[in-house]
């Protein structure tokens, strides 16, 4: 299954993106990233901008197992997922599954152009 996923960070983002990409490469040989862009925070109270990217990843893992691997990478890179406020705090890394590519998953408006660019590379 090919998944469309997102990557975000607003704590030492260049460092954490590099490390996350290293770990993600261990999950799949078929991994393709969009370019990285800087965005303003959405849904959290912070002044720190985010570095964001989209990526596609092919795997035989079901989505719930893939998300477990993403959570492990987040924790390795310093995210405290046990904190009930973790979804609204600054974060070293955030890795999400947007959905199977075959189902044309929805992406946040501010990432639409990255989705278009990434999909054009796949054609």
UniProtKB/TrEMBL annotation:
The keyword Kinase applies. Pathway: Cofactor biosynthesis; tetrahydrofolate biosynthesis; 2-amino-4-hydroxy-6-hydroxymethyl-7,8-dihydropteridine diphosphate from 7,8-dihydroneopterin triphosphate: step 4/4. Residues 5-99 form the 7,8-dihydro-6-hydroxymethylpterin-pyrophosphokinase domain. It is an enzyme of class 2 (transferase). One of its GO terms (biological process) is folic acid biosynthetic process. InterPro entries: Hppk, Hppk_sf. Catalyzes the transfer of pyrophosphate from adenosine triphosphate (ATP) to 6-hydroxymethyl-7,8-dihydropterin, an enzymatic step in folate biosynthesis pathway. This is 2-amino-4-hydroxy-6-hydroxymethyldihydropteridine pyrophosphokinase. It comes from Idiomarina seosinensis. The gene is folK.
């Amino acid at each position: 299954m090919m998944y469309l996923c997102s990557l975000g960070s607003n704590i030492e983002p260049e460092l954490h993106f590099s490390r996350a990409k290293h770990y993600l490469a261990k999950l799949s040989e078929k991994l393709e990233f969009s370019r990285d862009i800087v965005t303003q925070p959405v849904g959290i109270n912070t002044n720190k901008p985010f570095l964001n990217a989209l990526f596609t990843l092919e795997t035989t893992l079901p989505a719930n197992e893939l998300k477990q691997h993403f959570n492990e990478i987040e924790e390795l890179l310093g995210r405290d997922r046990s904190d009930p406020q973790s979804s609204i705090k600054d974060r070293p890394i955030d890795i999400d599954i947007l959905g199977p590519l075959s189902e044309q998953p929805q992406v946040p408006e501010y990432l639409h152009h990255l989705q278009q660019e990434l999909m054009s590379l796949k054609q």
